[in-house]
Design goal:
mainly alpha; 67 residues; single chain
């Protein structure tokens, strides 16, 4: 009977960051909690949608900060 040799597992392996799919996270945030995360410069938006997003952002959080 052959016993397989144990492979050495580096203790630092658990510290490696997990790759996160940001689009999947945004999608689940919208579906589960109705939280929308979108960049004003997103290529999937047309001009009217970008302007709408920009105006909402400025109304809620103010314009660009200088300085």
């Amino acid at each position: 009977m052959k016993i397989p040799a144990n492979t050495y597992r580096c203790p630092l392996g658990r510290l490696q960051p997990q790759i996160t799919d940001l689009d999947a996270m945004k999608q689940s945030g919208w579906r589960d909690q109705k939280i929308l995360v979108v960049a004003e410069a997103d290529d999937r938006l047309d001009f009217v949608e970008r302007e709408f997003i920009r105006r909402i952002g400025e109304r809620l959080y103010g314009g660009k900060r200088h300085g």
